């Protein structure tokens, strides 16, 4: 009965029902340079060029530039080298993976010679937008303890909710709290049952807590591992009007598959600490599917100049998440405690709307010997929305996104020079930070180069790209918010085979 009354009195805490963060918004809205070797070799500056299967991703009119039907498959080797700084501790990681990151084809159908609409093109393309593979361990000393995480969630929670009653066990109560009170109260429960925090008064109505960890210095070790990818399947239709205008439409099917696991280990020998070791583990599994569309055009001003324009609609996702947790602790007298509910939290499906984008591009062709191309894109990340928007937690999160994120521009320059059957390529990319505080995620700078050879109806292309930026990620979003400063360096080698159909 008491818990039923607590449910009514505790309605103010309903905002902690879920645990989505700004970091989730950034993770799913950002992408990497990927695609065919020709596309990557020119840093993706293809908005006004077309004629490449990956160019369809950024301008759907690109398929109509193809002179004949064609198919491409691309194999990518990715290497992510990161340097980490957590307080005074440094570490490095090196993650590599081979991936079939792009495959697709375009079918070109010519119309009658007396029609103004010269051709119709149909395209199908799959691309890996972002790979989430990453593993690292960082260690450092801090004056902030994980106890603040649990205190942040516990203060305001009636003690009656955190204590086992009757024949209840840890799993029963953890599950009950998740179903009826949400993520935040589960965190309070872990901290209380794990002897990290204690109630100010042994009273069921108590709502104030204190730490069993004394102030001082803390040796902390954080281990993180993630896997998965963000992929896109594009259905394309394009057409050519007379000899100067190409138009296209993309219908995109998106999917997200992301998993991570982490553990924070904390040690202290502070004089008044009743708890000197804490091990806090979390795992997350995310699956989502979404839809977006694109409209684009390429204008052939003359034999040398081409202009492109693309509108990317918002991307609408439905996302499902599952989590598991555990907490273990120890005392100076080696009294080990384990709170391992072994419960999978299955959260209600929610919707995520990623922002639209406008891209403009221009290219200059030097006959058949070479070309220069420039692309500009702008996306307002502050328009990211978690839905339903009438959800109290999502209102707070969306407001935080609106305040913390901003519109960001992307600049890409690429060039190609042909020597008989050989092609030499190079490119440069600059992407502004989507955060108002650029210490959280800095500007991205990238460059690329490549080479290709045409055997007639078959082309073989090879490209290398490198991108780097800095990022500061807090370990947790409340309580222990010390950031892990990361210098990211992403390199890719892409090999593509293109053949006529």
Overview of this protein structure:
The structure is a single chain. By secondary structure, the protein is mostly beta strands. It has a single domain, classed as Outer membrane protein transport protein (OMPP1/FadL/TodX) (Porin). Helices cover 13% and strands 53% of the residues. The chain is built from 7 helices and 22 strands. It has helices at 2-9, 22-29, 37-41, 147-154, 170-180, 183-193, 392-404, and strands spanning 70-86, 89-110, 117-131, 134-142, 197-199, 209-211, 218-241, 245-267, 277-300, 305-312, 315-330, 337-339, 345-346, 350-354, 357-366, 370-380, 385-387, 407-419, 422-431, 444-454, 458-474, 483-500. The strands form 2 sheets. Strands 1-2-3-7-8-9-10-15-16-18-19-20-21-22 form a 14-stranded antiparallel β-barrel. The chain has a two-stranded antiparallel ribbon with strand order 5-6. A hairpin with a 6-residue loop joins β11 (315-330) and β12 (337-339). α5 packs antiparallel against α6 (183-193). The longest helix has 13 residues, at 392-404. The protein is elongated, with a radius of gyration of 27 Å. The termini are far apart. The model is unreliable at 5-17 (pLDDT under 50).
């Amino acid at each position: 009965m008491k818990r039923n009354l607590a449910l009514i009195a505790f309605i103010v805490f309903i905002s902690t029902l879920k645990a989505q963060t700004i970091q989730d918004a950034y993770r799913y809205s950002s992408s990497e340079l990927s695609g065919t070797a020709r596309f990557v070799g020119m840093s993706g500056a293809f908005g006004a060029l077309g004629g490449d299967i990956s160019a369809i991703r950024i301008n759907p009119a690109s398929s109509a530039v193809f002179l004949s039907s064609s198919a491409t498959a691309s194999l990518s080797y990715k290497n992510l080298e990161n340097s980490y700084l957590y307080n005074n501790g440094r570490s490095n990681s090196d993650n590599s993976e081979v991936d079939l990151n792009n495959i697709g084809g375009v079918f070109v159908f010519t119309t009658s010679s007396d029609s103004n609409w010269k051709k119709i093109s149909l395209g199908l393309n799959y691309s890996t937008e972002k790979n989430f593979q990453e593993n690292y361990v960082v260690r450092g000393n801090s004056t902030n303890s994980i106890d603040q995480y649990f205190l942040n969630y516990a203060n305001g929670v009636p003690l009656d909710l955190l204590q086992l009653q009757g024949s209840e066990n840890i799993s029963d109560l953890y599950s009950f709290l998740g179903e009826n009170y949400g993520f935040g109260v589960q965190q309070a429960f872990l901290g209380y049952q794990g002897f990290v925090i204690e109630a100010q008064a042994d009273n069921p109505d108590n709502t104030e807590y204190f730490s069993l960890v004394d102030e001082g210095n803390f040796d902390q070790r954080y281990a993180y591992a993630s896997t998965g990818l963000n992929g896109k399947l594009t259905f394309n239709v394009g057409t050519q009007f007379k000899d100067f205008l190409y138009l296209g439409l993309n219908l995109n099917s998106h999917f997200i598959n992301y998993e991570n696991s982490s553990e924070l280990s904390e040690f202290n020998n502070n004089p008044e600490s009743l708890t000197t070791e804490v091990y806090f583990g979390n795992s997350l599994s995310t699956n989502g599917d979404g839809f977006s569309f694109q409209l684009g055009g390429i204008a052939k001003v003359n034999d040398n100049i081409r202009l492109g324009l693309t509108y990317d609609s918002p991307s609408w996702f439905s996302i499902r998440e599952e989590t598991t947790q555990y907490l273990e602790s120890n005392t100076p007298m080696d009294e080990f405690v384990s709170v391992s509910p072994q419960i999978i939290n299955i959260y209600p499906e929610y919707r995520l709307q990623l922002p639209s984008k406008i891209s403009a591009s221009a290219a200059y062709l030097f006959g058949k010997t070479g070309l220069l191309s420039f692309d500009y894109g702008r996306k307002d990340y502050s328009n990211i929305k978690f839905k339903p928007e009438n959800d109290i937690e999502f209102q707070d999160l969306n407001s935080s996104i609106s305040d913390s994120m901003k519109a960001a521009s992307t600049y890409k320059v690429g060039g190609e020079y042909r020597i008989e059957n050989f092609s030499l390529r190079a490119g440069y990319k600059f992407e502004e930070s989507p955060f108002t505080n650029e210490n959280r995620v800095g500007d991205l700078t990238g460059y690329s180069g490549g080479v290709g050879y045409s055997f007639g109806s078959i082309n073989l292309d090879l490209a290398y790209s490198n991108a780097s930026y800095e990022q500061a990620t807090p370990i947790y979003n409340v309580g222990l918010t010390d950031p892990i400063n990361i210098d990211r360096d992403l390199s890719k080698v892409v090999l593509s085979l293109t053949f006529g159909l």
